[in-house]
Amino acid sequence: MAINNPSVFLLMINGQIEGANFPEYDDLYCKYCFVYGHDWAPTSGLEEGISQITSKGRDSPQRMIWNFPLEITFKSTNPLGWPQIVVSVYGPDTFGNDVVRGYGATHIPFTPGQHTRTIPMFVPESTSRLQKFTSWLLGRRPEFTDPKVVAQGEGREVTRVRSQGFVSLSFHIVTKDMKRLGYDTTPSETSHTLSHTAAAGIGPGDQPYST
Amino acid sequence: MASSSDLREKLRKKRRALQQTLQVKDDVDTDTQALVPTDKKQSKERGQTTMEELTAGEEEPGDTLRRNLKAQRQKRKKMLEKASTDDTPDDSVVEPHDETVVEVTAVQQISHDDDKPEKPDIVSSPTHSQRGDLPPRPQAKPAPSSSHSESSTMRQRMRDKLRAARSKAESLLQQEASLEAPASRLQSLRDRDTLTRFDRETEPDLRAGRDDHTSPLNTKVKFRETVRRVRIESISETGLPTAEEAYNFFTFNFDPEPHEEAGKGRKKRRPRTEGENDDEEEEEEAVTEVDREQKGENEERDEDAPLVKDEEEDLFIIDQSAHDFLVVKRAEYMGYQRRLQSENDFLFTPSFLTVPASSKVPENMQPRYLEEEGLYVGERPPISLTNQNILENRVLKQQQGRKWFGDDGRIIALPDPIKESSTRPPLFHMEEDLDPALQTVYRKALKSKHASQYIAGGGGTNGDYQLDVDVSGLIFSHHPLFSREHVLGARLAQLYDQHLSRQHKNITEHLTTKLNGLRNAVRNMLEIHGRQGLTPVMQQRISEYKQEVKNTRRLRDTEQEKDRTLLKSIIKVWKEIKALRDFQRFTNTPYKLYLRREEGVRASDERDHEAEIQAEVDELQGEMEEDYQKKVTEYKRQQEEWKAWRRKRKAKEKKKKKKAQSQDDDDDEDNDDDQSEGDTELGPSKPDPPEEPDMEGVEEQVREKASRIRRKPGEPILMPELTASGPITPNEQCPRGEFARREDVAKRYLFTKVLYNNKEVSRTDNRSLNSDFRVHFGQIFNLKIVNWPESIKLQVFEVLGSSTSLLAEVFVPVPESSVLTGSAPSEELEFSSNLRVMFDHEAVGSDVPFSFEADGSNRQTLLTSGKLSCCVSWAIGEDDVPLAPPTTQSKAMHSGLKQLDAIACIGASSLNDMKKLGEWATESRLDPNDPNNATIMQLLKVASSGEVTAPDYFRLEQLQEEFNFLSEEEIERSRRFRLLRLRNQEVAEFRNYKCVPALEREVTDKVFQEYERRLREGEIVDTKDHLDAHRALVAKYLQKIRESVINRFLIAKHHFLLSDLVQEEEVPSIGILGLNLFKLAEPKRPLKPQRKERKKVTAQNLSDGDIRLLLNIIRAYDIPIRKPQASKPAVASKSVRSFTETFTAGQSSQSAIQGSDWLLNQVQVRPFVEVSFQRTVLQTTTADGPNPCWNEDLQLPFSAPNGDYSTASLQSVKDEVFINIFDEVHYELGGDGEDRGREVHTRLEKHWLGSVKIPFSTIYFQSRIDGTFKVDTPPVLLGYSKERSLASDGGYDAVRSLSEGAFITLFITIEPQLVPGETVREKFDSQEGERLLLASEVFERDAAVSYPNRPCLTTVIDINGKTVFISRYLRPLNPPQELLDAFPNSPQEATELIARYVSLIPSMPDSVSFAGVCDLWSTCDQFLTLLAGDEEEHAVLLCNYFLSMGKKAWLIIGSAIPEGPTAYVLTYEQSRYLIWNPSSGQYYGQYDSFCPLQTVGCLVSADNVWFNVQVYTSPLRMSFDVTKAKLWKPFFSRAFPNPGLSSVQPEELVYQRTDKAVAAELQDRVEKILKEKIMEWRPRHPTRWNRYCTSTLRHFLPKLELSGGRDVADEHRLELQSLLGDYRISGFPLHLPFSEVRPIIEAVYSTGVHNVEASNVEFALAVHVHAYPNNVLSVWVYLASLIRTR
Fold it and tell me: What is the pTM of this model?
């Protein structure tokens, strides 16, 4: 019964926060958390985590690797509020204070399979030059009150941000019962090709007319 | 030997097992398998595999076989060594030696019986047993001989044989003995094995060839060894295998017997290198071995031929051997040394020692140092010596390693490329100093216009579009190199072309027929209907026809004229050409004109001509006649008019004359005259009669015209015919000028460039210019296109020598996608160039005037021009698919998406304006039946029919319906969608609804039940919870308001500020910075530490347990002390109290007595503080005395409702912190009889003394509460009395000293500090004037800037959410009359009563009800209706009452503890200021230090607002004289007077009388509920009620109410004591305003009376509800516990 008539669908996310590209910074670590709607509930796995500190390698001076695994399964009844992963990166500044280096978020891909995402990261800007200077001096840069802010659109108009670097993630998505509940997320490859053949099919029809 | 026997044993077992398994296999199978071993062996020996013969199934055995072989081989080797050493211990026999022996035997055997070489399988000697597994050799033999013969000469072989024979003889002699033992062993094994079937079969053979079957194998194995060794040697010598070796190596795979050959080859080579010395073979054992091997092999080969024939037999037996391979063996271990050795074979570790120079330079050469020879040698890049050595060693190891070394014996290296100094000079200058030439210039990146316009349609088909550009040729209509004749010729050709095309169209003929048809039609119409019967319609039609005839005739005439002139000019040009040819005596052009003449029949011709003329004349005459008639009628009409006018004028003139005669003309008449005179001047002139039409003239004209434009009758029809067949005068016969011209022409070449989107894609070949100025290219360019075609351009270039000049550019239209190659017609595109070219020869040049006439007149100028014929079309793919982009796209590309109509889909891409097309079609009277027009008509039809008309309306969201998720009804019907929508609307019930079910059916109706009930029952009042219908109503109403406000708030919540999102440190101001700097100098541990401001935490990321409430209970004052039970002080009865008496120290006597009591009995109080919050209870230690000092920290956990820590939720927390002071009382209980004296049982009781309630919201908003609070003590505390201060100044001063009750000093805060919620930042609309609002804004801002800590309020928000000026709230309002009547003689009493009345209205902080919104001010009538409100409402009401009582009263906006920002009332009476706390009804003198009011911000009266600009804010230290502008800043001043604001308050308050019965009922119910609750709270103990006490108490309560809660304790106690002498009684009355039952229960609970656990406790509970007007109820609860002392 349960198999025939599922009432929830499952979204399983395996993946990792592969690494980051922060040209000017080093010794960074990142936190992640998931933001999801009312109808979503994590069934297993970690909802948030904090990675190790990574330093730049000698051979690839721009790239920092975390390879921080993500593994979580959600269940949901409604694609509204599809989970988003929020990644925030922190690291020491010149004075050794731990400051935020970037916030970023992306939706979990909804098609099953492997995906890689590169999230551009940004940090809130100080409201004034003086603020900027003092925050630099004191090592207390402006931060979002809650990193989850970056996953929502509301109220963002009051902030000014600066972009800094990228974080790349890879996901392996498995879904269950999505289609059964009427959510077809597989790419419409087939329909695409169909339309092509249809378009091509017009050609021969024209042919006798023109010759 | 032991090991060998073991091995034998093992082998035997193995073999048996194998044989058993094999018995089931059929022979065929094994036959094929038999092939495997041979191959395997060979391949293994070469380290390669040839498995071609193997089927997949046989692969496995092959593999295992190979493995086995390897293992066995090694074992065997060991065995051999062992055996040899054992057998001949003295003999230093080495391996090769042993092998020789074997080999010899092999040779022998082969010579003995060749037929059975397969026997080795069954051989079981220690040396041979392993070999037995090996596949037989002979099989493989035959093949090599053939291949072998290629590489080896016969002579060589012979020599080998000789050598082999020699060594054979030697070894035979030496090793005969050593062979004995193996042979015998072999024998025994043999015997045993005969049991198996296979063995039986082969037995005879085996027996016979027992000795020899090992030999070939043995030789082979040995051979391998030797080969290896040989190879190592050769490698060590040459370093690399030779080409031959390599060749062999690789060919072995495919050769059945390659190793033999290889061995031979190697052997052959070796002797050669060693100098062909035969005798040297003994020098190296390996060599000899090889030789011997070779010899043996040769012999073997000799035997091969017969062996091959016996293949079947061989295979059969090999089978057996295959089974033997399947042996389970121990893992092989290779000794360390051996491994090292073998590794050494593969690995090479370059030494890091310096390589001797000799090995690096070619032999016999000395290193040559170029440097020393004076040549320049660059500096080599630095490299460490060790690395260099390693590299050199490594390089040398390679075969041609020396080539890496230079003449000097060092590795060749380029000089160090790194330069010491940078090549680019550093730029030290600033930018402005920079050389302008070096300045970087910013150039904006140019984006190709068409680059991004890719043809859409999927990545797959990109590049499948192909345009075919066919450039077929070029014809010049004028070229600079034209001679005059050419000019004429071109003209002639042009005219002829025109002629042809005209003839083709034959418009004249067409028009003529049409004319005739029209004429016939008119004639028919006239004839049929006759003149008379013409209907107006007919007439209309006839006239139309006539008009048509006229037009057609005119057209025909012009066409005819054109025809004729064309013909004439052709002939004229031709004549000119002929003349020119004659003149110049040569011919340049091949044109020749023939005029064909057609003789017509003269008679009919004339007749036609005449008829035509006649018809025309008739028509013209008719027209003229008609015209004339019209004119005549017109003339007549005008004539009439003129005559009438004339008459009138005459009459006027007459009149005028008369008037002129009479002298008394007045001005008016003069005016009239003037007017009339004016009229005469303006009047119509006399019309001329129209002329009679000249009918004869008409005919003349017609004839004249006919002769001009038509051929004359009888004249032959001339048909010009132009051919280009005429001869051209050859060059030699031309004059020099012409010759030069022709030469010039020949030098010219032309080519065409094809430009696609302004990029050259290809060009044609150069083609020479012909003498006829035609160029034929005939080239087709296939353009695979990716970008959308924007333009296709052809450029014609002329090449003269090396210079190229652009002649012309031709734009070719981009073809429609239906234009396909093959079907597209070639187009002729005209071009011209305004290039000026002049020549000094015959050519006319371009843009140069020239003349045909000899005298140079009639000059003309011609420009280069011509026609390019080309064709652009879309290609057709292989399968007839047009490689054209879809039409729709081209549409989109051209005109964007604006044309999304049906017509575009049809494909009529360029016909966008259907309306115009339609108009044109009707105007031009398109013949609908003409097939030429069929498409247009079709299109028009389609366009005008309804379905495809472009909509004439504009749809805002087109396709909206198509994209609708569901229809509106369906969404409405679906429960799930409803749920989702409600949640989205943040409806309270669903705001945080989790997991909306995925399916419709899973959403039950239950979900909505509550919500629907709420909606439905909105109006229905539920009295169950509220005990009072009115309260329930009010509660409902309040709920509604709350909801609307909350909705407003929810909207506002979605507005964010930066601080909501971003945490940012405050910029330290200069002052703070300075302070911080100053702080650096401060001592690290100051003597007076200061409290540091804590960091604020936003509420949202908190969870349960994160928030704690910190209470620091410091000390208390004036705690009531116990009274000794026995003492019965005589207290003066104070039944009558006066107002003044209250303020006097009326109880001094009592205190005196008390003091004595205290001294006497030493009865103290042992108070402790218990704090309860959210049902968590903590208590301090017990202190002693009425002024205890605890100084203790208590931490209470806080949990938000539903775990929701959002600001909004925290703001609406209604929980209160109860701080109760108890007295801890020890009672010694007498022990049981015997224990008495020895044991003391003590019972602890706690007696409630008083409490302080602080709402959480207050703490939340204030973030900390610090101060001394009045403890809410009951008016009567049984068993306790108060210690009083003795000060008594009389009058109002007494208030301070008399301030009853205890005080407690507290500090409360929340840890961590929470950011209090912001008020709504919504701008409320207002009905106030703009100016007032602006002024109030300015006023408040100024106040906030200059005195940030002083609350200033000028505008408030009323309950409808509108901004109202604050003074509008103040207006004298009548208090309830009965209250005034209560004390008619004592205004002071009445004042107090009214204050009490106001305080009895329940207080409900706005911050709780309207979470986080703001203060909403309700008017007094609203307040009285709601019976709930904030301090402001209380204050406003009280103030209004005072005003109506004629007092001077103001509203104080300030802050107090614990309320925070609040409103108090200030009255001025008896020249003193009194401050009233409206919520408690208390009043304080201005100088009362216990006044809770701490800050005074502003005063509000009915007509003005004053802001406190004094130094101090405390009422103690300030002046309330608002007339002093220095101290109070008025809002309305002379500059901005009060505009006369009307009040928002009602005229008058109407009070309902409260029903006493309702109050009584309520009283009963409350009592019942409370009793139940107390019993409920004591689940483990029986609760006994003392009825007697209860009734006494009940009796007493109304007195308390009447006395206003004032101290009647002593009186009362006396009364009680007399009644209840036997009981120890502790109890107190509680007084509460009534709003709901719940607060009453809470209050009762917090006193903890129910906690008395003595077994003999009894309780007494009495409730009294006193009703004041308008349902204001005062509730008294008297609660007592009684313990029987005896």
Answer: 0.44
